[in-house]
Amino acid sequence: MEKGIFEIFGVMSMEPDEIRVGVVRIEGTNCEDETVRAFRMLGVFAEAVHLKQFYSDMIKDGESRSIWDYSCLVFPGGFSAGDYVRAGAIFSARAKSLLRHDLEMFIREGYPVLGICNGFQVLAELGALPGFDEDRPVSDKPEMALAINSSSRFECRQSYLKHENRGKCRFTSEYMKDEIVVFPVAHAEGKVTFPVGREKDFLNLLEENDQIVFRYVDSEGNYSDYPWNPNGSYSNIAGICNVTGNVFGLMPHPERVVNPWQHTDWMRMEREEGDGIRVFRSILKYLEKL
Amino acid sequence: MKYTVDVLISLKKGVLDAEGEATKKALRLLGYKNVERVSSMKVFRIELNAKSREDAEKMLREMCDRMLANPVIQDYEIRWVG
Question: What are the chain A neighbours of B71 within 8 Å (beta carbons)?
């Protein structure tokens, strides 16, 4: 096992009852409840926290929060601020203007930050993903985009994902390499896009750094085009982590398949649990282990 | 001084413009076979106070960099209104 970031920075390991997860919401996010529930199913404290609770002086005493109240932050799915300007642009601008310093410190110290769907868009707009620079975990400008789907439509259905991470990503340690899972997608802007002309360089770097986590595949596990790749993502990328493995963004929704009966084929296929729950378990293992 | 500006956000060359393509297809279906290209753009009309035009432009560029445009896929253009 490689040396954990917590050991390097001296952050102590955590007991399950010390873990506190904050799912950050603003107007228009709509997946915070199921995301909170996924963590609670595993027996840890989780709550939806409005971004305002971090900074506004109009908040009741018992409700104001600091980033440091949490050991894990999640940006949930939804349509934050109505997807105005670009999906995630307004949420990330607000978070950046208020919390950039704290957020960078949080990430540098090794705490996990997860972004699902709209949350992935927020992390990309923030400049926290692809996150190549360990020392500056939030870049000044975005370095990637989640562009409008090639189909120009809202794509909403099950997707097959191949877990390709070799061990860097803290959020998928409970999945085997090359394992295929099913998470639903539901987005209109999810096409992973890197700067024009530099796509190959970005891809090489991501692969070299072990930052690719999930890729869209067909039911046989092969890389395929639309509809298997629902949005036209470059190189079929569905989810990536930063260079230190503690910031992870993905378009599909693991929190929507935490129980077996949430899978569309639940009557035909026996599962002990939903495919997505292990994302949340991986986070807790990571926090507990170190 | 008060200024009124249109900020045009367009997609960079080489980035697929799905909305533009779909619109072009529909226009051609309506019989406008002479339509060769449709590009979608977004316009923000911004009214702001600034000391000078240069000052205003500096601020507007900052706004684009910080939020209105994602430089990976989008270009922006500032047009003075009136």
Answer: 141-142
Encoding tokens for residue A27? Answer: 């107007």
Residues spanned by the domain of A170: 5-289
- Is the Cβ of A268 closer than 8 Å to some Cβ of chain B? no
**What pLDDT, on a 0 to 100 scale, did the predictor assign at position B82?**
74
A118 in Cβ contact with A79 (< 8 Å): yes
A64 in reach of chain B (CB within 8 A): no
The enclosing domain of A30 has a CATH number of 3.40.50.880
Tell me if B18 and A151 make a contact (CB, 8 A cut-off): yes
What letter would DSSP give residue A255?
Answer: G
Best of B67, B68, B76 to substitute, by most chain A Cβ atoms within 10 angstroms, is B67
CATH code of the domain occupying B2-80? 3.30.1280.10
Q: Which residues of A are identified as catalytic?
A: 117, 253, 255
pLDDT interval class at A178 (50, 70, 90) = very high
Q: What is the number of structural domains in chain A?
A: 1
User: What is the distance between the alpha carbons of residues B24 and B41, in angstroms, rounded to a whole number?
Assistant: 14
CB proximity list for B50: less than 8 A, separation 6 or greater: B1, B3, B56, B59
Would strands A155-163 and A145-148 be described as parallel, antiparallel, or unpaired?
unpaired
As a whole number, mean pLDDT of residues A32-58 equals 96
Tokens found for residue A272: 């002990």
B62 touches A: beta carbon within 8 Å: no
Which residues in chain A have Cβ-Cβ distances shorter than 8 Å to B22? 152
Q: Taking the CB of residue A194, how many other CB atoms lie within 10 A of it?
A: 22
